[in-house]
Amino acid sequence: MGIGSVFEQVFRMGRNMLLTRLLAPEAFGVMAIVYSTSSIVDMLAEIGVKEAIIQNPKGNDPRYINSAWWLGFGRGVGIYAILFALAPWVAKFYGNAELTPLMRTALLSIIFLGAQSSKAFVALKEMKFKRWAFIQNGGGIFGSLIVVGMAFFVRSVWALAIGFAAENFMRCVISFVICPFLPRLELDRESIKSLLTFSRGVFGLSLLNLIFARTDVFVLGKLYPAAQLGIYTMGIYLIQVPISFITNVLAQTLMPSFAQIQEEHSRINRIVIRVTSVIVLLGMPALIFVALSSRSILTLLYGPRYIAGALPLTVAAVVALVNLANSIITMVFYATGCPQFHRRCVLIMAVLMMILIYPAAKEFGMAGGQIAALISVIAGYAVQFIRMKHLTRLDFGQYAKSFPLPIIVSCLVFAAFLAIRQVVIVNGVLLNLVLGLLGCVVALSICGKVFLKSPTAEASTT
């Protein structure tokens, strides 16, 4: 699964490098509005079919699978119908008539996503990760190839719109090829009841998550030109791609694992502490690389006109690290059948984001979107940990030991290399990238050596 995800992300990165040279930044800004609008309705109607199948002990029952497919497909068709009707209103709000046909084309992907074979989720539940990798990553790779091919012939935002729909269409087709499933025209009442019970736990949660994740795009899209929004979204996308990859791999492996040991709280706590330790140990040195080399990364990958996205990229890296550590606790909530425990965390994040985004954007410019997100996610993380403490009796002292060493060492190394860059003028993109990479390696080496000699590492191994 990891290999498949890496291949997909490599294709996506190569696709973006080509597209930023073939298409104007305005195209990415317009599509950011399309994605965000669809996500609002999509997440409002979220019923958690995949998570319900993985978590439920009867998730591989044919009657349960069939009922889950009809619920997912019906949801997809309903959401598309709503978005089809809303498209002209969104276009009028942003003063861009082209948004109407773009949305109606790109968002066909929602129907394709809902029509995926439910047995693909069973494969994930049973940890048959190779099948899931072929479906998810194969669809992503085919979609990237279609987008690039379209961009050479259609030098406009339409290449992105058609490619977005094609990606989930390919996932749908591949899911039925690898995990054959023929929906039956009958619904099992008990299975529907079980699915809807789980759905109540996630009701509203995805919408709140969407508000937190997309409020910056809506507000910045109203305050700044589409070109600047495109630079901002492509900048933060650089960090969201690898974090999305890591989060997906962790979720697809840890959630089935937690579901199988959902009654063994002490074992769950050990896994949470170990995984969080590794995340922080690797993540903090990686932040040094991003902070020191963000301008050079953007120049190398997208071209010099995207340098304005350097500060948003750096802050987005911090947001991503905090969110990644927080996601481990979220996986426990879902795996134990308590997705509603995650709702309070997301509610706080969404409310704070709505309160902070406008003043932050006015004060700090485009970077204000990520600064507001950082404050919000830290507050949500704190609330989530408190809830986790009540659920599994997670010890704060043991959990907190994961943080001080990597944070202190990384901050000291960053300060030292920043001073070096001020004294010794580093010119050139590649030289700056080497300096950032060297800082990352130094911090990682120090953290790794100290960590391996610490009592925490010995206790973890035991």
How would you characterize the overall build of this protein?
It is a single chain. The protein is mainly alpha-helical and 462 residues long. It has a domain at 1-203. Helices cover 84% and strands 0% of the residues. The protein is built from 20 helices and no strands. It has helices at residues 2-22, 25-44, 49-55, 62-94, 99-106, 109-114, 119-125, 129-153, 158-178, 189-202, 205-223, 226-260, 265-302, 310-335, 341-364, 368-392, 396-400, 404-423, 429-453, 455-461. It is globular. The two termini are 28 Å apart. 50% of the residues are buried. The model is unreliable at 458-462 (pLDDT under 50).
Distance between the termini: 28 Å
Rg, Cα atoms, Å: 22 Å
Structural class: mainly alpha
Oligomer state equals single chain
Question: Strand tally, please?
Answer: 0
The average pLDDT is 83
Key features?
single chain; 462 residues; mainly alpha
Compose a concise summary of this entry.
This protein has 462 residues and is mostly helical. It is built from 20 helices and no strands.
Write the layout of secondary structure elements.
Layout lengths: L1 H21 L2 H20 L4 H7 L6 H33 L4 H8 L2 H6 L4 H7 L3 H25 L4 H21 L10 H14 L2 H19 L2 H35 L4 H38 L7 H26 L5 H24 L3 H25 L3 H5 L3 H20 L5 H25 L1 H7 L1
Helix pairs in contact: 1-8, 1-12, 2-4, 2-5, 2-11, 2-12, 3-7, 4-5, 4-10, 5-9, 7-8, 8-9, 11-15, 11-16, 12-14, 13-14, 13-18, 13-19, 14-16, 15-16, 18-19
